[in-house]
Amino acid sequence: MAESDGNSAKRPTIYDLAEIAGTSPSAVSSILNGTWKKRRISEKLAERVSRIATEQGYAVNLQASLLRRERSRIIGMIVPKYDNRYFGAIAEQFEIMARARGLFPVITCTQRDPDLEFEAARELISYQAECLIVTGATDPDRIGEFCAAAGVRAINLDLPGSNAPSIVSDNFTGARDLTALILSRIERDFGVIQPLWFIGGRGRDHNTAERLRGFKAAHRQIGLSVLPDRIIMPGYSPHKAIAAMGTKTLADRSGLFVNSTITLEGVIHWLNEQRHGSGDIRLGCFDWDPFAALLPQNVGMIEQNVPAMLEATFELVETPPTGNVRLKIPCILRGIDNYPVNP
Amino acid sequence: MAESDGNSAKRPTIYDLAEIAGTSPSAVSSILNGTWKKRRISEKLAERVSRIATEQGYAVNLQASLLRRERSRIIGMIVPKYDNRYFGAIAEQFEIMARARGLFPVITCTQRDPDLEFEAARELISYQAECLIVTGATDPDRIGEFCAAAGVRAINLDLPGSNAPSIVSDNFTGARDLTALILSRIERDFGVIQPLWFIGGRGRDHNTAERLRGFKAAHRQIGLSVLPDRIIMPGYSPHKAIAAMGTKTLADRSGLFVNSTITLEGVIHWLNEQRHGSGDIRLGCFDWDPFAALLPQNVGMIEQNVPAMLEATFELVETPPTGNVRLKIPCILRGIDNYPVNP
DNA sequence: CATGCATGCTCAATCGATGTAGCATCGTTG
DNA sequence: CAACGATGCTACATCGATTGAGCATGCATG
């Protein structure tokens, strides 16, 4: 970044304002931080100093202020991506709810990169965050360990860890219900009962494992067993999904369980290329997207209950739990009955 | 937030580490911030202190560090929402590019609320941000004025202001080209040449005004004039779009210019309710969304060139311009030819 | 053996805001 | 008129990291 011009005035401090107003820095400080009544500063001086502060474009130096205060009221969050509705909603709701509680939210995006996750966590702690919400981290325990050593509280959101309280969706039940829905729609629309494909995610990832467990449970419930070669876990990005599916052939009347909206992008791309565009496929997707819901093949989406998850998060923030809780928040199944695709 | 437990150790400082290591705080400081070679600290001591720092979970207190340093390297950004691909991409790219330049990005989301925008800007300046990227602000000049008074550089992104350099998409050309595309598709698919509807945004909003200008220019180009009662500007949110359209009747073979993906959500909802689902409508939308692109009625989307916009932004960050530049970044028209909707 | 220089550290002032302790002035009361 | 309380301020230490100045030691050189 360019050095600030020599001529452009430096940011004014309480010492500058005190000199202009002909008073002391202490008075200025207490006037600007609202404690002036308690300190018996006259209304007259308070008004004059406030006016000068506005004129000079004063903004408190939080570095200095927070250094002196015992609490920062900063609450940090790391999120992996901003490229889908789920994490977007988490970030937005988090900021709103934090502000409503008089806290200062700071969010950092970490690109699903374990090292960047760790560096970002360290950075937020350096900012004196009093609490860290670790969202969708690939290695939450590494961060949890550091937080513990630094004496900062950590809460895992979306993906659980073993050394800090965790709040996750009930992935098993959500996936089981979505799988059951897809299976029943295939039967209704195509008249066939057959195992589905599972596409997206990583096998070591807790949520993917849980969803696969739900996926299998729903199959078992109607006497089907899952075919191992129909489980494709190449990660989350669209192009990885496309590459992984490139090797497969998908019969008509197939059903797909798609593990995330970002994977769904790749899946749809692939289906369109394979001329599977129309009525010969049914799919459901874990996570909600308003436009994806309109895809003609789509029979249902799982919406994770972001407000409930964050409500639970802030409850843990406000009253730290004893022991290592793991909360499961039920998901919302949004069944879809789009216009008929087989006219 | 709950007070930190009395028993949990406070965060260690360089003084704590110095005592443990049996050395001075200065030595510890220089070892941990990388200036120790210049200060002729022995490798042996450096290693020992580093080890102790790791053991103790030390993280530098940025409040103290930044207070002393002359530069913060913090670069702030405010964005209105995280609920669409455009702002999500801006936020994500901004963080990546800032980090690549050795800067510390801090982003705040302001809900399109002018007061919150201003408060957030003030807060970022209080964090000692050296530069503020003001994205999609409803009142950028208010923030620009404050930044000028505080001696902090501001750059307007997405929506222009009059007192700071601005980087905006070429909304006029983008809208004109998209409008021309929709008009030509209506002629091709329906055999009619008629004015389109314009839906979404606010009339006083610069981008909406520019897009409307492009919308009108494209009509003029083929000898049509725009009908004033077909211009609906109720804001951006889906439910506002639905409410505003509730009063209108849309003939078959109509064409719609939709001003944002978030408005499009409401439009699609309304169309489906009105049983306009299938092949009797064509629309185009300003802003890109991968799933919205698959809507059968959709004939094209404008993708704003986020990488180019941020490239230009960081160029301004690095070499502050003289005078009040306003850069226009061309958009990308993504024409879509979805599977036939009139089988 | 005095001098110079390199090595390996420590000391202390500093950044800006905060808050406790304290000072000066004024009016009131016994 | 002394004592006291209220009013309206100021002085100063403090938070943790940084950094220029400086100190002590060891070794080499004339």
Automatic annotation (TrEMBL), chains A, B:
<dbReference type="GO" id="GO:0003700">
    <property type="term" value="F:DNA-binding transcription factor activity"/>
</dbReference>
<dbReference type="InterPro" id="IPR010982">
    <property type="entry name" value="Lambda_DNA-bd_dom_sf"/>
</dbReference>
<keyword id="KW-0805">Transcription regulation</keyword>
<protein>
    <submittedName>
        <fullName>LacI family DNA-binding transcriptional regulator</fullName>
    </submittedName>
</protein>
<keyword id="KW-0238">DNA-binding</keyword>
<dbReference type="InterPro" id="IPR028082">
    <property type="entry name" value="Peripla_BP_I"/>
</dbReference>
<dbReference type="Pfam" id="PF00532">
    <property type="entry name" value="Peripla_BP_1"/>
</dbReference>
<dbReference type="InterPro" id="IPR000843">
    <property type="entry name" value="HTH_LacI"/>
</dbReference>
<keyword id="KW-0804">Transcription</keyword>
<dbReference type="InterPro" id="IPR001761">
    <property type="entry name" value="Peripla_BP/Lac1_sug-bd_dom"/>
</dbReference>
<feature type="domain" description="HTH lacI-type">
    <location>
        <begin position="12"/>
        <end position="69"/>
    </location>
</feature>
<dbReference type="GO" id="GO:0000976">
    <property type="term" value="F:transcription cis-regulatory region binding"/>
</dbReference>
<dbReference type="Pfam" id="PF00356">
    <property type="entry name" value="LacI"/>
</dbReference>
<keyword id="KW-0678">Repressor</keyword>
